[in-house]
Structure formats: structure tokens, C-alpha cells
Amino acid sequence: MSVREWYKGKNVLLSGGTGFMGKVLVEKLLRSCTDIGTIFIICRSKRGVNPSQRIADFAKLPLFAPLLKQNPKALQKLIAIEGDITEEDLGLKPEVKQKLQQNVNIIFHVAASLKLEAGLKEAVDFNLKGTKRMLELALGIKNLEGVQHKTTVTSGGDSGHHLQQKIPYKLWLDSAPFYRYF
């Protein structure tokens, strides 16, 4: 089965979709997996721009120009979800959380603070607790097939070393209570 076939009809939940890595991931999924279902993007309002507008603004980016030339309706698969990884329940309204738990198949968690000058509290809120909150949401997703986490450890450049850890889904689910220690 090809990657394209595997993603056919599957719905994705993405955090960090408005960041550098997130935008590249969105473009790649839309271009390479044309039969993908919906991509739900959790993001917050920023500088007076609401999540829906932030996602709509993707159409203005050069990154998306070739995709939109090929498929002008590609961005219609994107749904902005008002949320914030620094808040309990990711800042999701209960009805939105329920919708995600009923419809999502795959999670990409790429939201994080990359600020090296950030204080410990900010780094913990974004990078550690944000991941914990995403995993808590994942535990309630009925048809979850995979979780991909992009950590800031691997976002900083190419050191010549590559860290990759694969955890089989069932093993991850069985050991999920580990996050309660944070």
C-alpha cells in the first residue's frame, strides 16, 4: 500500500500548522495525498487575526502556489480549530473536542516554542505540557491510527545525527499513563 493510498479518506489533526514545519507538512499532505480527508488545524488568534483567516492566508504564500495552480480547491480540506496547546483541553470547546475524537484518524503534533531564550515555564507549557494535552486528547479518539510528534530537539538544524523513535501504536496506548507524571 502506498502512502497516498494509506491516507485516502483519513482525517488529520495538526497542531503547529501555521508554523514553518506545519505549513510544509500541510502542503505536502495536500499535494501528495489528494484523497486525504479533512485536515483539522488547531491554532490560536494571533495579532488580531483569527484562526480561520490565518489558514485562509495560506493561499497567499508562494509555498502553496503550485498546489493551488494544480488544484484550486485544495485548501477546502483545511478546517481551522480555535485552540491553544498551553490551555487545558487544548483550549477546545467541548463540542469541538467531541467532533475531533469522533473523526480524527491521525495526529501530527508539531506545535512548540522554538525560542531558545524562553524561560523554563514557557518552554514547559508549550513543549512538555502541550504534548501531554495532545496525548490526553488522543486517548479519547475512537479511530486513531497514528500519532507523529515533531520535537524541538530535531527542529534546530542538521547536526549529522538523526534521532528516530518508533513506538507501535498498541505499545504506546498501553504505556500512555506515563504522561501523568508531568
From TrEMBL:
The protein's enzyme class: oxidoreductase
Keyword match Isomerase: no
InterPro entries with a match to the protein in the record: FAR, FAR_NAD-bd, NAD(P)-bd_dom_sf
GO BP annotations, alphabetical order: long-chain fatty-acyl-CoA metabolic process
Enzyme Commission number: 1.2.1.84
Stored Pfam families: NAD_binding_4
Keyword line: Lipid biosynthesis, Lipid metabolism, NADP, Oxidoreductase
Segment forming the signal sequence: none
Reaction(s) the record says it catalyses: a long-chain fatty acyl-CoA + 2 NADPH + 2 H(+) = a long-chain primary fatty alcohol + 2 NADP(+) + CoA
GO cellular component, one term: peroxisome
Stretches of the chain forming a coiled coil according to its record: none
Protein task: Catalyzes the reduction of fatty acyl-CoA to fatty alcohols.
PANTHER family tied to this protein: FATTY ACYL-COA REDUCTASE CG5065-RELATED, MALE STERILITY PROTEIN 2-RELATED
Family the UniProt entry places it in: Belongs to the fatty acyl-CoA reductase family.
Protein name as annotated: Fatty acyl-CoA reductase
Organism: Rhodnius prolixus
